From TrEMBL:
Residues 631-775 form the BioF2-like acetyltransferase domain. GO terms for molecular function: pyridoxal phosphate binding; transferase activity. Residues 74-382 form the Aminotransferase class I/classII large domain. InterPro entries: Acyl_CoA_acyltransferase, Aminotransferase_I/II_large, AON_synthase_class-II, BioF2-like_GNAT_dom, PyrdxlP-dep_Trfase, PyrdxlP-dep_Trfase_major, PyrdxlP-dep_Trfase_small. Keywords: Transferase. It comes from Salinimicrobium marinum. The lineage of its organism: Bacteria, Pseudomonadati, Bacteroidota, Flavobacteriia, Flavobacteriales. This is 7-keto-8-aminopelargonate synthetase. The keyword Transferase applies. Its cofactor is pyridoxal 5'-phosphate. SUPFAM superfamilies: Acyl-CoA N-acyltransferases (Nat) (SSF55729), PLP-dependent transferases (SSF53383).
Amino acid sequence: MAKIKHNNFLDTVDEVISNATDAGVIHLDAEGDHLSGRKIRVRGKDSFHFGTTGYLGLEQDIRLKKAAVDAILKYGTQFPLSKTYISHPLYSHLEEKMESIYNHPVIITKNSTLGHMAVIPTAVRDEDAVILDHQVHWSVQNAAQILKTRGIPVTLIRHNNLEMLETRIREFTTKAEKIWYMADGVYSMYGDFAPIKELMGLCKKYPQLHLYFDDVHGMSWKGRNGAGYVMSVLEELPANVVLVGTLSKTFGASGAVVACTNNSLFRKIKNFGGPLTFSAQLEPASVAAAIASADIHLSEEIYSLQDDLREKIEYFNRLLSQTELPLISKNDSPVFYIGTGLPATGYNLVNRLMKEGFFVNLGLYPAVPGKNTGVRITISRHNHLEDILALTEAMKYHCPLALGETDNNLDRIGKAFRIETAASIKTGRELGSLKLQYEQTIKGIPKEEWNSLMGGKGTFNWEGQLFLEQAMAGSTKREHQWLFHYFMVKDGDQHPVLAAFLSNSLWKDDMTAPASVSKKLEEIRKEQPYHMTSHVLSLGSTFTEGEHLYIDRKHPKWKEALKLLLHEIEKLSDNLKTEMIVLRDFKEDNELARIFNDEGFIPMEMPEACILENMNWKDEDEYMEKLSARSRRHFRKEVLSFENKFEVEILKKPTDYEIDHFYQLYHRVKQNNYGINTFAYPKELFSAMADDVNWEFIVLKLKPSFYEGPEPLTVGVMFCYKNSDITYVPSLIGIDYTYATDFQVYRQLLYQTIKRAKELGFQRIDFGLSASFEKRKLGATIIKKFAYIQVEDNFKMESLGMMRNES
């Protein structure tokens, strides 16, 4: 698997968002010459607006509009000066009113994102530690990254997992002065709440614990004077709590507000919170609109507005309770999430609703895991009861159709979100003439049939798979207890449309992390061997590389066959309780990528694969002529000039002593290379190679004249598989690093592998993944490879991302 870099993540997000854009569900443009709040014009159609975060509808209040217009006429479109020097005339009035709302001192910021960037690096001291809920808003997580440059530990816990939080707190009690836990008051995707009372209980138990809340989605529609959800629970703001609210969204204006009762911290933020000092202040129009909204909040009117919204929320909840629609989190927030599971179902349902005249949002990766896509609906005071009823009826009608058209069902959605669903809605399609065969051993598939589809590929022809099954059988270690799964899909004429094999095994989560992260985790694993590991269901195995999925793309039903396979893999993963599905080793293929995306798989770039196919040279000189001029110079200097320093031996049946030594050399490579961080294979695997006619060992021995010793010294070994007289596969390598650099051992092993494959008459060499720079210089072709992954949740990926950013 790949070492995922930050730009790979950006590429992944770009592909997901591009697919959603192509599907017509995001990056849309509102049309028309005015907005009313109740309706929005999209693609020439007036639709009921169920996507706003202005839950009380104050952005359309005439008082806020007039105040903003009047401020522009009086003070201009902006006041272009840092607030540290001087604020425009309206600022102090807004601060006074916001202090009355919170009953505490406040600081006004340009927006909540800049507010977090101002407050978090100021509030958190070098001797502190930070724990983030892994669903806390991106703006909080992004601001927390700044702390890592100062050596402050930042870690994640699973969403609202108090047990995990308390474990993290205990870990930091002797290491940190203050322990900050950062969370949302109301979470923006599912509309669920932070367990504030329980968190305050932990504060009493652990006095070091301080809380930092982003409550922008709880603002205005909840709490005394609309101070927000967090204040509705706390009533008064404790000294160990920092609260960030918003003047945007429900408040109806622009900007954000920070409330803090710690006078010293308050002063430090106000005096030097980076963006407060160096960013422009809120425009007069925004401040004036916020003042007008604050006046409403400070009046009895705010409670009638809250009551109006609450009645509509309760009404929608009642309507949904009478349906089988999969509501993910039922509560009294204005945010509702109807799970679709598959992105394809989400695209379909959103487009159906938009055609019916309902504008809703789609929740998709990276805001949620790929298979937790859903329709995000928000209720506001703009919505009339008849609008809400009409939306519910439309969803009741279109949801089963969207499920059916995308081969989805409520049972799959329930499993994806780990919720109970009413699975009485019948959806899905008949398989027709396609027949699926499933086996747990390669023995269940005729050798000729498998090899006609998979022969000559990597190490996984029929004989190679039988070898692997037998070599990995009976191990007592968890990481070596592999299960194998074989699938064949045939049409009514028994013609193979698709074939694949998968393995279920324990993986290190950092297989896709930078080497620096793996090094840190390996230190922890010295005491906790299975720290940050997961059971994974993967195409192929960590031992194999190549095209593990055969598809007859000329067959008219190949797409149906592929979806059938993906559904079976999903069921198998559910039965095995695996945490991740990995479909790997694909070349760039837009058509396949779209299918995988529709099924909830996220693309990831893998290390490049290396193959050598140009084997039609007669001798060394002719081989060199096929290299580039630069590669020829490299070959003469770094490879050819060292060849006479070695004796090369081809072993078919090494002794037990030799296997022991080869295994030690293999382990040295594992210990020195975190490029692809897998568990080390058991020694039994290497002993099995010695007993298998399809394996041989290229042994590199340093001549005695080049080191102090009486006889040739084994300094390198290549473990090679001979696949059907077609492909030669240098599968694993072992090196004595004492001599590796001085004698270019790795490069020499690569070259001797090429010579051996040529001597045996093989058509190609599969050089595998990684080290593509070295292999290219010896004539290998480099192929870009991709994997598609589906995870239970994003927690582990985000945790590794945190560690990556520390490196």
